[in-house]
């Protein structure tokens, strides 16, 4: 009575055991690693992720905060020395001054006296020339029939040395008058262009010397944008044949009334000094001519903040996971002949991805991660 159930249980156990054995063997077959040959004779497991590698035109955008600056700063200094007699009421920081406005005037008494003396010397020199010409004419008439045979005697008889001397004094007197007139004009310092005053460092009654800085101004209608860009993004910017950065950009701002102003511009230079605080390069950009909102741009206040966007085009490139880079200069790929390393040129890293170019790329390359 008890033998039948016992045999039944035994067969059930044997069946379960055989099923487990078959399952394990099947699993081992399914999960057995694939070992394709590599170029160096090693192997890579098929469990690594494979990513087809395709080169195409890609782009990335650099977004930065730009600052409006004057195109240049002019240091004002008089051409002569003297005591300040007048200072224009608008010659103070922040004021707008039109081109040609007299900013500073020096006392003119000394320079007027100098000019009067120069003019008197000029009149005397002209009189001496006229007198000498008359004497020379008399000498010619008197000695016309008995001119010496030698050229030297002829010059003495015709008073050539005397005429040369008075002509030289006349030329010197004319130059002295021109110099004195210029000095008198230089007692008035005019605005060289329509400008905004940055600094006035002179007052009524103070003494100044020629070349001394008395103020600083910036042009009212010439602006540029200074844009700090992180060095890793700066290095990704394309260069022209001379190695210069000349990429286009857009700059925008929103006015208090909600109006959006946007300009197209272009990088024109790179500041030779880096920004140590942000470890950044400073791009200098200018507005392209004939763009919209030109009037608003010309009147843009210094130090106004702008949103700057630079779109960088990278032909024949690919975005790959940054983890696939080996030492930042190579990747591992599977080729029809096996595993190989490809040298890459890193353009930029963004959000865990790397934009690279692959100079040795071949059709059929598959990236191994």
Automatic annotation (TrEMBL):
Q: Which residues form a coiled coil?
A: 108-135
Superkingdom of this protein's organism: Bacteria
Q: Which residues cross the membrane?
A: 12-30
Q: Does the keyword Transmembrane apply?
A: yes
- UniProt keyword terms in alphabetical order: Coiled coil, Membrane, Transmembrane, Transmembrane helix
Its recorded name reads RND efflux pump membrane fusion protein barrel-sandwich domain-containing protein
Tell me what organism the protein belongs to. Akkermansia biwaensis
